[in-house]
Amino acid sequence: MADRSAPSCHLRLEWVYGYRGHQCRNNLYYTAAKEIVYFVAGVGVVYSPREHRQKFYLGHQDDIISLALHPERVLVATGQVGKEPYICVWDSYTVQTVSVLKDVHTHGIACLAFDLDGQRLVSVGLDSKNTVCVWDWRKGKLLSMAPGHTDRIFDISWDLYQPNKLVSCGVKHIKFWSLCGNSLTPKRGVFGKTGDLQTILCLACARDEVTYSGALNGDIYVWKGINLVRTIQGAHAAGIFSMNACEEGFATGGRDGCVRLWDLNFKPITVIDLRETDQGYKGLSVRSVCWRGDHILVGTQDSEIFEIVVHERNKPFLIMQGHCEGELWALAVHPTKPLAMTGSDDRSVRIWSLIDHALIARCNMEEPIRCAAVSTDGIHLALGMKDGSFTVLRVRDMTEVVHIKDRKEAIHELKYSPDGNFLAVGSNDSSVDIYGVVQRYKKVGECIGSLSFITHMDWSSDSKYIQTNDGNGKRLFYRMPNGKEVTNKEELKGVQWASWTCVSGVEVNGIWPKYSDINDINSVDANFIGQVMVTADDYGIVKLFRYPCLRKGAKFKKYLGHSAHVTNVRWSHDHQWVVSIGGADHSVFQWKFVPDRKLKDSLHIAPQESLVDSNSDESDSDQSDVPELDSEIEQETQITYRRQVYKEDLPQLKEQCKEKRKSAASKRRERAPGNSIRLHFVHGYRGYDCRSNLFYTQTGEIVYHVAAVGVVYNRQQNTQRFYLGHDDDILCLAIHPLKDYVATGQVGRDSSIHIWDTETIKPLSVLKGYHQYGVCAVDFSADGKRLASVGIDDNHTIVLWDWKKGEKLSAVRGSKDKIFVVKINPYMPEKLITVGIKHLKFWRRAGGGLIGRKGCIGAMGRADTMMCAVYGWTEEMAFSGTSTGDVCIWRDVFLIKTVKAHDGPVFSMHALEKGFVTGGKDGVVALWDDTFERCLKTYAIKRAALAPGSKGLLLEDNPSIRAISLGHGHILVGTKNGEILEVDKSGPVTLLVQGHMEGEVWGLATHPHLPICATVSDDKTLRIWDLSPSHCMLAVRKLKKGGRCCCFSPDGKALAVGLNDGSFLIVNADTLEDLVSFQHRKDIISEIRFSPGAGKYLAVASCDNFVDIYNVMSSKRVGICKGASSYITHLDWDVRGKLLQVNTGAKEQLFFEAPRGKKQTIPTLEVEKIGWASWTSVLGSCCEGIWPIIGEVTDVTASCLTSDSKVLATGDDFGFVKLFRYPAKGKFGKFKRYVAHSTHVTNVRWTYDDSLLVTVGGADTSLMLWTYEVEGHRDSRQCDSEESDLDSEEDGGYDSDVTRENEINYTIKALSTNIRPMFGIKPHLQQKEPTLDERPPVSRALPQPEKLQTNNVGKKKRPIEDLILELVFGYRGKDCRNNVHYLNDGADVIYHTASIGILYNVATGSQSFYQEHNDDILCLTVNQHPKFTNIVATGQETQQICQLQLLLFMCGMQ
What we know:
single chain, six-stranded antiparallel beta sheet, 7 helices, about 5% helix
């Protein structure tokens, strides 16, 4: 079998040739260590001119387009393009990430700038609004954001002499910003008459509010405040792209190829014209300048970097060169020397020395170059051109040998034969031409088998054959030199290939990712000796595979750096290096090949840290050689927590049913019942898909969760207290280090995490807004201040919170596959670890991001699915449990050993002071020493070990263990079967809590005269529960199939159970042994009922639309009720046992006579007179009111009437349990509502004496007991919800004023343009442009008579005076309240009207105004704190309705 593992050797980036000059500016600086920092493609480069050495920052995954240097000149900020671009702040010395800023910009980050003390960073996006953002970059926190301008912004800078001021410039504008609080306010620069309105490309700030800016026409504009005061004309002959301020003054660089130096007052010092120097050329354009001391760095449009020493300014030193604009496709390596040749659409061919890392020759051609090849003796270099010609040059002096044009379309591939006699030239005309080298390149053959353009070619070692690939992915063979196609495969059997650069063929099957296009992989090159090959693809990735690579989905190592297409890749002649070239990024990357043996010496070097793993063994076809997942884990990964409708959608859905509400609100409706219920006990524990969710609290109680309830269980008293703040399934739970607070995460559209106190059961903090669909893992830091959480969205987002403040600190996409556990390092709260499906990653916080590194498995083992993890006794040590039963021991990111711990997955792990405890699928709890060397003791969870005080029965021996916790001398164990057990250190096991296992619970029946109930579930068990204070499971029986319904006989001795295969049983209610069983149906039995009295008949309803009636005594079927058009949902007998009421899935209410089953039609009025033995139906006039307004979305699944027929309890698909008065006539009755179940409440039943309501929740597997509290006998509790679906329009309505105000809709006015347009810019912020009237009249006619010349230019006009607000009449009282206050001990009154805040002086009667709002103010408050006297906050309505602009202002100071 072919080896599909990744090769063990790897590549290390050694050199990058090029510099990004095109479309970027101001991206070249000296660092504090006198190194040069810049970027090319997706790589940040730090170059040391002294040592001629490069270091690389690889934290980006797409083109970098902006760069800023921190004032201390060690840290660098870079911004990239992309759909979700981010900013990295990194250290130029260690090239490690310090902070990541993300989640705000889209498209790309155009410019960046640090403020004077380096604490804040400003960024400008490439989105349509060119958004400006200010960051506290160390925390990764966004401080402020505002739309920048409607057109592109080219440069932004902090005013280094005034705090909180910024200047930005771009297409036809310059803006001066001030940052106040969290709001950025711009003022446009006024060009006035001093200069033309034009595009400003760069700027620099000076003292005294002076700003210098470089314009598109080569002038420098000088601004004072926001006004243009003078221009320095002709500073450059064309656009000024770059301006750099330093201690000595300013340097500017322009499109004219000149660099100018200016003193601090912008008086010229000197000009350096690079076009006139030795290295210069026509068309040289400067994109970036940096002046430090006597050195100047210059970056050009054509990817060169010059260093100029001021006193030898006519001899610039060229320190970096690269290809210019245009795609780069041609690459060839010299057969005997360490040289690489590249050719590009910029029409230049260049030769690079791989040893000196320098350009050694360059030659310009007439046409764009698309491919290159060097002859076997290294003398000739052939170049294929875009116009269909090819040229051969002598390598030593780049002189032309021949130029031949036989084709019209581009030449995409050419290669010399190994014997040096022939040159094969493949063109886009679908043919390969063969030329004789010795005959001065005379054409000697032609291969014409392809139907598409030729992409790749290889010669055989004996020069007798070539193979080709074309654009259709076809692989063809030809005999040489005549070019005849070889169709007989036998002929090719023993052929050895001299090189392998083809992308299709058996040998390279494994390089193709799933679902890839035939042209996704651009280039391949095999290293036969090292048995590896390298590929280049359209996604910017260079990959290393084994060669040959026969089987699909082979593993590889991948390397990032190129941004988009990697067009070509080749091994150097001695296989020491790999050279790759990037199409659009014009860059040439040189990678050092590190073979296996060298790897062993370099193991102590950690892999390059990056946001994207550049050294991953991942394969595109993930399932390739991962062992089969354990069945339990497989099941768990299939669970989807997505809901069709979430509880959060309720208000919206109700809003849509407005019409219904209006009509209902007009009718008088029955009050909600006076009595209520309170959650009393819950049977169940969520173990089947959760882990490590069970802990001892400080006081020795046990905290865990089931359904939407957080449970605190007191094992001495067998009582429970409940946290009911969640409204959907809780999926995870973590306990604070002090064991007093708990964090729980739930399912939801915008899912929340609640942190609550286990003593008071009150919430301390609720975290929302970052996780979609649900939260599957949480963990507190050792100091208890932070919380980490993982979502179940597609990227399994990881978020780090400061939970007390409710603030997100950092976030990152975790993994495509499910993550099971997150753990924060107890010694370093900045670090964490996550484990999941084929996933183990070590993360460290960097500002607003987290930087992950995969665990390095090395030769120790293979990537396994990890189920649990803990940190050990030092900050470097971590331990993880795998799905195969091993425990992996990690130091830093390296796997140092594995220990076999369990048979089957290790689901849970807990670190003790000295040692560890683990639990697995094998049902064994194991205690270990602190190095996992010795297993000190094991406990098997067996029925035989159950202690007498157990609250139930173990369903099976060795249940799968999902949670383990230690404390109070015991080990607490949670199992997959929903049991919580306490294991004594000496061995006995006590069962404390249990519930049903995975599968929906539907069947529920209460005993006719004992506090007992029975449940039956899809988990194939029938269980009997004691509802008295002992709260335990009395009996359990396994069934051959799951069941959906059950019912006690009227004497309580027999129990009927309907199963999912259409059969049903009657069992002895005490022993659960079979009495009788039947099967007449194939579909699920949905409801089963004994007739009242003696229980003579049994009605059995099934999902195939029938109700069968059996005579219990004779065990025969005596009747069939036909006529239902859908499956049967509910059944009730009348008191006489003669009539059946049936509900169906089509919402029909039908009546059948028993026992024959004849269908009856009974008028509504008569139905109400009939006495029913039970009422569990949901249809009919008596319970019309139980259907909610949004009845289409949610079904009422169950109901049950108290024996005094006063209160009807219902359960619905939203997880609500509701109480209605009975009969609930009229639509949309009022109710009391209770949340504890997560989604569907499948059944509800009152006990025989109505003291308890028992409810079961479908998928949440729980059985809940609620105590029934009669009016007057209860204290009001938090779970009492008096809501009805029509909350506001309760009977009696409102006072008319309140009603009117309630109906005012502020959105209409603000959003409709026809009442008053609110667009444009306030007059005092507008840029003053000459109006039509002010422009001088242009006319050949005679001047008009004096009288008519209204605005003659010659006349001195009086400037228009400003209007000043003097007095405002009015006060907004019609729809506002509490908006008048005294200030200054009653001397002043503050209030508002329209968009103005008014301060009225009582003594003088004068007013002063706050005028920063631009729409009606709706609210006002005064800060009462003595420290903040006279601070007022006002809120306005605005165009974005949600954005309430709260403006704080000091009264008396406008």
